[in-house]
Design goal:
alpha/beta; nine-stranded mixed sheet; 20% helix; globular; 3-oxoacid_CoA-transf_A; CoA_transf_BS
Length: 275
């Protein structure tokens, strides 16, 4: 788990707006990370601070500190598992010049496509940018208004997983000898050529789960899980929209895919609220 993922009990978390600089993004560039407040506002006393409660009462408060220039991972495989309510809240919040990590580049004009259409995204890192309903991304890319980093799907998943696991990178045969490997280290291992890929870190992850509790433990619904679990580990601040918040102990431990240590914020978005 990354070093500043959670705060030790008794420590005073940094105040809003404070940032630090680390050089560990996919391109080893110097990027700014905002500290993530681990609990919602209102834990005023020492006793309250010791009670783990990651439930936020609104979408707006959950994304309030997303800053301009942030790198944000967004879960979803197409529309499956897309945290559309959180994305809509992010559009309302106003952050811009964002770098987005997602499998796709938006479908139709809702969800991620709406964020692109609002002009908030500077760069997108994805594996499948073009499809029959990716007209928003297509128009932006042809106009030179968005940067694209194309990553093979397996490499994308492994680069995200590597960030969450604290791995400095990995060698893969995928992409060797293609334009995608230009400028990257290569090596022959047991007679087979490989290319070196760096992990992808993020400031925030916006993901969707079926159920969650106040500790941040999550269960997902079938294929809507997709990139959510690994994105939660790779981001400094994982923000999750769930269909239902349940009491502690209601989730079968064997069914929990993402343990609460990787989640900072949970907000309930019942199905009726998304209609």
């Amino acid at each position: 788990m990354p070093p500043d993922k959670t705060f030790v009990s008794g420590d005073t978390p940094p105040g809003p707006g404070r940032t630090r600089h680390i050089a560990n993004d996919a391109n080893d560039a110097r990027i700014t990370h905002a500290y993530c407040e681990p609990y919602p506002p209102g834990h005023g006393t020492a006793q309250e601070a010791r009670v783990i409660n990651k439930i936020y009462d609104s979408l707006a408060s959950a994304v309030a500190d997303v800053h301009d220039g942030a790198t944000i991972m967004i879960g979803g495989f197409g529309n499956a598992g897309m945290p559309s309510a959180l994305i809509d809240a992010l559009i309302e919040q106003g952050a811009r010049d964002l770098t987005i990590v997602n499998n796709n580049a938006g479908n139709g004009e809702t969800g991620l496509a709406a964020l692109l259409k609002a002009g908030r995204v500077r760069k997108i890192i994805c594996s499948f940018p073009r499809q029959t309903d990716s007209q928003v991304f297509d128009a932006l890319y042809r106009a030179g208004k968005i940067e694209l980093e194309l990553v093979p799907q397996g490499n994308l998943a492994e680069r995200i997983r590597a960030a969450g696991a604290g791995i400095g990178g990995f060698f893969t045969p995928t992409g060797y000898g293609t334009l995608l490997a230009e400028g990257k280290e290569t090596r022959v291992i047991d007679g087979k050529p490989y290319v070196f890929e760096l992990p992808i870190h993020a400031d925030f992850a916006l993901i969707k789960a079926l159920k969650g509790d106040r500790w941040g433990n999550l269960v997902y619904r079938k294929t809507a899980r997709n990139f959510g679990p690994i994105m939660a580990t790779a981001a400094k601040c994982a923000i999750v929209q769930v269909s239902e918040v349940v009491e502690l102990g209601e989730l079968d431990p064997e069914a929990v895919v993402t343990p609460g240590i990787f989640v900072q914020r949970v907000v309930a978005v019942p199905p009726a609220a998304r209609a």
